[in-house]
Design goal:
heterodimer; A: 498 residues; two-stranded antiparallel sheet; globular; B: 517 residues; 3% strand
Chain lengths: 498, 517
């Protein structure tokens, strides 16, 4: 295979990476201004990061519709990229909002904290925009290394250190799998470009390609915390500072699924029959393990870690289906999942005070009478996670299940549904604690924490709005995924009806 | 043709719920909740008056797109079956709020009112939804407030009861969701687009195997809700531990959602399977009737006794439904209303007694006739209504059901009659031990009789019992067109199938001639 390389033929359109550049520059500015700022007074840095994110968000808004491949295929600027840019940035903004008090409270080094959050965000966005396997890897590393450090940022906390080290070791290990997978895929097909893969990886795959695809699956499986590659999740989620746990549960997962989905559901469809059965098994294992183990957790963060595993399982259910409907369903699901989880972790932050974490389910006791608004928010979020209509979580599950049923996976959906019933048990336990029990931990008056209130309020309102009026978000998801497939976006959804 | 009555009726309680949380003191919360509950009550009376009794199709229809991508629409309507359940719901919610404000709910009144009104939205929405997605949303929505009502204001093992209630129901309803989705995707083949609209889905051609599985998915959800024997185990716990208002709504309205689901969805969607499975359901219903009555007979706890009597009474309803003839179905709908009124009243009376004595053990009472005659007198009427004394409401429903069951399979009717006898037995036996004889316990001598508020709570229900017993016509003639349409649809469908199976056709012919008789 001969490659003629000519710089002139490469499209250097800067617009697709403009949001990335903004976030990256913002991260450097935050890091440098940290020299002048006392750690205990890091709120300004937080606002600066938020400003960066808002500007990047605005820059991303011009992306949709600019259907193109740039930087010689290294980046793709389609609606799919834009969808994830916007979602990741929104999530990052909420993370910063909920960190403003928390970072000061926990005495975390502010400059490092916010700049790493921004760096990780840039990595996540790169993963979503990646048009070849190496860029995915670069994005993944940018994100992961930042998050390894973030997880261990509470230096005096043993559990935080443990989380960081565990995450780093297992993460590095999984990256190895991913890289090896990329190498084998390259060996088998002679390309790392995704759009080339979709024509080359078809028909009866060679053993080398199969190995490569399998290793890619393991690599992504680690990042999305699919069983049996989930072992790190509970410890890391529990030990990391809560805002970082939220970042891992939402941001990392968004980015990992963005790349996972683009590689498998868009460009490896040619060998779908070879991986869909594996995904079927992974989906069942992931859902069931996540839900069953979550039943026994008394620590909220740990419980949410297992719940996050279970939710990855539901997403895998749709991915098993492998259709374009399924792809759109996953995007919609991720949107609802992101807001719901961000809100839930923000509530856990609201429970902590002056470095003392209150993250046991029993700490929630009586919250319904002491902080009615906070308790009601948590209840709404937990119901959304359970999948109670008309919240975002329900419509997400609904679209995921219907995608799988549409592709004929009836039993898989039945298993998923039974899992949903199991999950109701542990999502209801905190609610019982809040409303039916008395006497838990004292909570800092919410009134003194406007940023945190804003974070929770945004999450709760989004959870309700996305659930009650899902149409615009579904259209956005469908358009995003069809554009990733290289088809023109549907002008209206009316084409689905006669 | 669009009107907004149904939207207003369903969502005004939600507005009320929001309003109640803003009230500063508890008295204001009770008052505003009660007033807000009167609005849907008034609307449902208006619907009753404006309802055209000659029309079988939906009335007061509202139809808009909701999620066009999935073919989900906001489609509401009322027919002769749901009309009365709407009335029952609005009446019982108002009465429960009136009763609970009188001291039964001692703490966190605002939240209680909030959940009651939210529950009303869920219940009314379930009854008016014609789109299956919309139906499912409301169906699940009503679980949440009931869960809180039991979990916060319940007694004893309330958390256990609340969990059992919600997990049981959720299992059923999520499997129903799978069935709904399967049906919708199947329907796309013939419709050309996705649709969750019930009329669209009724026309889907299905193989018999598919139809059986899908029917099973729906039937399980509804059977758990009813609850039919052997899915009834959540009910005694939920009922016993729930606060009085919770029990009233649970027994009075929520259980009807199961039987309503059979009538509205399971049977019209899969008429062939319904006809095929009718003997099984009638058998389970008879088992439920006898089992519920026998267990009620030996309960030492008054509330548990009433709870088990519900299993028995709902068995009658299912029996009538699966007789699949006009008499049986009409009787079933009528009996749904009767049970709501009578059992709701029984739970209220038990609740009043619990407030006075903080016990429900039958052995703790005796001779109450002497100390609280008004209470005893009202209890007598309610009990007679529940037993099915001619002239009171219970008789009409039970008579029609037995007639319908007899026309279908006389053995089923014969077996069910024993349930009637047992029903009289457990209620009279309990009444005798509580009300008659000498006063054995000192505390029972000085019990206060019913307060003005308590009498005000009971009077509308007593009036309904007499009205529905003496003059069932305005109710029956409104439900008749819808019931006839349902029965005809079921049998017409079977007849079409029968042209391929001569032997079955003969049986169906016999059934039909029996129907028309």
């Amino acid at each position: 295979m001969t490659n003629t390389f000519s710089l002139a033929a490469i499209n250097f359109d800067w617009r697709p990476i403009l949001p990335l550049l903004i976030v990256g520059c913002g991260a450097i500015i935050v890091l440098l201004s940290g020299v002048k700022v006392d750690d205990r007074d890091s709120e300004g840095l937080g606002w600066l990061s938020l400003l960066t994110i808002v500007i990047a968000f605005a820059a991303s808004l011009v992306l949709p519709g600019s259907q193109q491949v740039t930087f010689a295929g290294a980046l793709v600027a389609d609606d799919y990229t834009a969808f994830f840019y916007l979602t990741i940035l929104f999530a990052a903004a909420i993370i910063v909002l909920m960190s403003l008090d928390y970072v000061a409270d926990e005495a975390l080094p502010g400059a490092e904290y916010y700049s790493l959050v921004l760096f990780a965000t840039a990595g996540m966005m790169l993963m979503a925009a990646a048009g070849d396997l190496i860029i995915i890897f670069v994005g993944l590393e940018t994100m992961s290394i930042s998050v390894y450090i973030l997880a261990g940022l509470a230096r005096s906390n043993v559990r935080s250190n443990e989380a960081s080290l565990k995450y780093f070791l297992l993460g590095a290990f999984s990256t190895g799998f991913l890289l090896y997978g990329i190498a084998l895929v390259y060996g088998a097909t002679g390309t790392i470009k995704l759009h080339a893969l979709s024509t080359l990886a078809t028909g009866a795959p060679t053993p080398m390609l199969l190995m490569g695809v399998g290793l890619l699956l393991i690599g992504f499986g680690f990042k999305v915390a699919a069983v049996p590659f989930h072992m790190w999740t509970p410890d890391v989620y529990e030990g990391a500072p809560t805002s970082i746990t939220a970042f891992m549960a939402v941001g990392v997962k968004l980015a990992a699924f963005a790349a996972f989905l683009r590689v498998f559901l868009v460009h490896l469809l040619g060998v779908q029959t070879d991986w869909s059965m594996v995904l079927w098994v992974l989906a069942v294992l992931t859902m069931t393990t996540g839900n069953v183990v979550a039943l026994m957790q008394n620590n909220l963060k740990r419980m949410l870690a297992y719940s996050a595993i279970a939710h990855a399982g539901y997403i895998l259910v749709a991915m098993t289906a492998g259709s374009s409907v399924a792809g759109a369903a996953v995007l919609y699901y991720l949107l609802g999942y992101a807001f719901t989880n961000l809100g839930a972790f923000a509530v856990i932050i609201a429970l902590s005070r002056r470095g003392r974490a209150h993250e046991l389910i029993s700490d929630l006791r009586g919250l319904g009478t002491r902080e009615p608004a906070l308790a009601a928010s948590m209840a709404v979020l937990l119901f959304s996670l359970t999948g109670v209509p008309p919240l975002a979580g329900f419509v997400g599950k609904f679209s995921v299940f219907s995608a799988a049923l549409n592709a004929g996976y009836v039993w898989l959906v039945v298993i998923a549904v039974i899992n949903s019933v199991i999950s109701a048990y542990y999502y209801l336990r905190p609610i019982v604690a809040m409303y039916a029990d008395q006497g838990g931990a004292e909570v800092v008056r919410m009134r003194s924490r406007p940023a945190l209130i804003a974070a929770i309020a945004i999450a709760v309102i989004a959870t309700i709005v996305i659930g009650i009026y899902p149409q615009p978000y579904m259209t956005a998801s469908t358009d995003a995924f069809t554009s990733a497939l290289g088809k023109p976006p549907l002008a209206t959804t009316a084409s689905l009806r006669p | 043709m669009s009107s907004y009555w149904l939207t207003a009726m369903v969502f005004l309680p939600l507005l009320g719920a929001a309003f109640v949380t803003l009230q500063s003191d508890e008295r204001a919360a009770w008052r505003s909740a009660f007033i807000f509950s009167l609005i849907p009550l008034a609307i449902s009376f208006y619907l009753f008056a404006a309802f055209d009794p000659h029309q079988a199709s939906y009335q007061f229809v509202e139809h808009y797109d909701w999620i066009p991508q999935f073919g989900v629409s906001y489609h509401m309507g009322v027919d002769g079956i749901s009309l009365f359940l709407l009335l029952l719901t609005t009446i019982l919610i108002s009465i429960s709020l009136l009763y609970s404000g009188g001291g039964d709910i001692g703490f966190r009144a605002r939240e209680f009112c909030f959940f009651m009104l939210l529950l009303e939205t869920g219940l009314l929405g379930t009854l008016v939804a014609v789109d299956l997605f919309l139906f499912y949303v409301f169906w699940e929505l009503m679980l949440i407030p009931m869960y809180f009502l039991i979990g916060i204001w319940g007694h004893g093992r309330k958390i256990y009861a609340a969990f059992k209630f919600i997990l049981y129901t959720m299992l059923g309803s999520l499997l129903m969701l799978v069935a709904i989705l399967y049906l919708v995707f199947k329907a796309r083949g013939s419709l050309g687009h996705l649709s969750f609209d019930l009329p669209d889905l009724m026309a889907v051609p299905l193989t018999m195997t598919e139809a059986r599985w899908l029917f099973a998915g729906f039937a399980l959800a509804f059977a758990i809700k009813v609850p039919m024997w052997p899915f009834h185990t959540w009910l005694p716990d939920a009922h016993t531990e729930a606060p009085t208002a919770g029990s009233v709504i649970l027994a009075g309205v929520m259980l009807k959602m199961g039987t309503y689901g059979f009538l509205r969805f399971a049977i019209p969607l899969f008429p062939d399977v319904a006809v095929e499975a009718a003997p099984i359901f009638m058998a389970l219903a008879v088992v439920g009737i006898v089992f519920g009555a026998l267990v009620a007979l030996v309960q030492p706890d008054l509330k548990r006794l009433v709870a088990y009597s519900s299993v028995s009474h709902l068995g009658f309803v299912v029996l009538g439904i699966f007789a699949l003839n006009p008499q049986g179905v009409e009787g079933a709908v009528y009996q749904m209303l009767n049970h709501g009124v009578s059992t709701g009243s029984l739970f209220l009376l038990v609740g009043m007694m619990y407030l006075r004595r903080h016990t429900r053990e039958i052995a703790e009472f005796g001779g109450l006739w002497h100390s609280i005659p008004i209470y005893a007198g009202i209890f007598m009427v309610v009990m007679l209504s529940s037993v099915g004394l001619p002239g009171l409401n219970g008789f009409v429903g039970e008579f029609l059901i037995l007639l319908g069951a007899y026309l279908h399979t006389w053995q089923a009717a014969a077996a069910a009659v024993t349930g009637l006898i047992l029903g009289a037995l457990y209620l009279f036996y309990a009444y005798e031990r509580v009300m008659f004889g000498p006063i054995t316990k000192e505390v029972n001598k000085s019990l206060p009789d019913l307060s003005g508020r308590e009498i005000a709570v009971m009077v509308p229900l007593l009036a309904l019992m007499f009205f529905m017993g003496f003059y069932p016509r305005p109710l029956l003639n409104r439900m008749e067109p819808s019931v006839m349409a349902l029965v005809q649809r079921t049998h017409a469908h079977v007849a079409r199938l029968d042209s391929r199976h001569p032997a079955q056709a003969m049986v169906a012919q016999l059934t039909r001639s029996a129907v028309l008789k």
